[in-house]
Write a structure and sequence with these properties.
patched binding; smoothened binding; four-stranded antiparallel β-sheet; BBS1; about 550 residues; five-stranded antiparallel β-sheet; extended; GAE_BBS1; BBS1_N; about 40% strand; single chain
Amino acid sequence: WLDAYHDPMASIHTTPSCLRLVDVTGNGDPKLIVADQNQKLRVYKGINLISELALLDTPSAICPFYAEQKAGGGSERIPSIAVACGQFIFIYKKLRPNFKFALPAPQVSEEELNVWSCKEFMNACKVMIDGQLVSLQENGTNLTYQSSDLLSKETLEDRTLFIEQNQKVQPTHSTTITCMESIKKNSDDETATSCLVVGAEHKQVTILDATNFSILMKVTLPAVPAFIGVTGLMDVEYRLAVAGRGNVVYMIKNGQLMATTIELESSICGLICSGKSIIVADAQNVMYSFHFKGKKNYSIHMPAPIQALETMQVDSVSNNVLQLVALQNGEIRLYREKTLVSSITSNDVVTCMRFGKYAREDSTLLLVYKNGGMAIKILSRNSNLNKTSKTGGPPPEQDIPLNVPKKTKLYIEQTQARKKQQAIDMHRIFQRDLCKLRLNAARSYVKILTDGNQKTSSHSITASLKLNVEVQGLGPYYKLIMTITNTGTKINSDCKVMIRYNPDLYKMQSSFLDLPPLMPGPQYRFEEKVRCAFVMHQEGE
């Protein structure tokens, strides 16, 4: 990778879904489109900021798409940019506001409307209205914010006051767009007509026609969609991989929610579609690859948390698709399936990245750092992406088969003659030897207990202190390890330990130990050094 540009003072604060490379003018010169969290739509050409538009709300996603071909035709097609803010999608054409679309909010349930519209009930028993709302919530009804605010009130007076203030207000649902992507309609061409795939807070995925923004399809999910991956053509066959706010990836095929799901061990922090696979990153520093049918291809454990994922396709003809992974330690890794191809290190944490054609280069990587900086890296034309890393992937020795010898004639004769014909006798001999082994082990254990060579334990039934003593070392220096446990329910203080020994044989720095206050439960470990005064002495002394 070649370092082309670095601006630590760019002040870009955005998310991966709000960073795109788009040819907004249709002249073959892509621009960098950034929907900043400061409610600004920025356009970069090269290293220069050429345009900055104000947004009405904080953006959640941007997506380029191509509308219907004009009747007169034309070689140049100018894409539109969809910016999702709240429940609205703002359409920009040639960097000018063109259209605003409001995503329809879900309908309020009839039971909830009946609760708020019953005037006699509200006048007679205002304090009991929340009881019906609680029962609706327990039954799985999606309540409005008005009902949720009522249930969040803690005191009875606050709930009564809230009902009096809002009894004439009709409860309505509102939604927020969480993610957005585009899908080709009937052709794989770069400038083919597209449709918008929108995920919303009310657990629905909607596909919009780019021509008149009519709703083509709606699918309700068990969870709120957070990431969307698309593949295929809308008019032929398509699949959607939708990751919810949790650890489950849902599959949608041709408008139908499939029973096949992908469940991970932790929360999902990224999802992309790379070729015929789904690349998913979770919060346990693991990157998974799944087939669209749900079969797991492989998994790779990363040394740091994953911040961003990006697909890198160098040549569309050869279908050479790789994956870029940005880690929290500042490292950016390039993988071809489960093989590590290369790795680059930055001084800051990368939060967003995009790969594609930018300015005059076909293979450009744009990075946005956590501190707001921006960097541009260019893939060298002499780079060999087919070269694998020495540290990536399994060792080649595992593909070499073991030289297992063939069964000899002697082995077959022993198996037939001895093992099969004398199976009962062999089993009896085995059981006899096993009993002898257990008997010898029991005798050895009893001998250790009677000789006093085992680890000692000093405690009584009524005592609240338990003392275990171990001796480590081969001599002439030893270490006396004492483990004391307070088995009672109260703190024991002013406890002391006195060690008795033969001063003619052993020497210690101190034979008296003051113990700190002993809390019930934990084990306290104390060590004392012991030196043998006479290395050579007669047995029995």
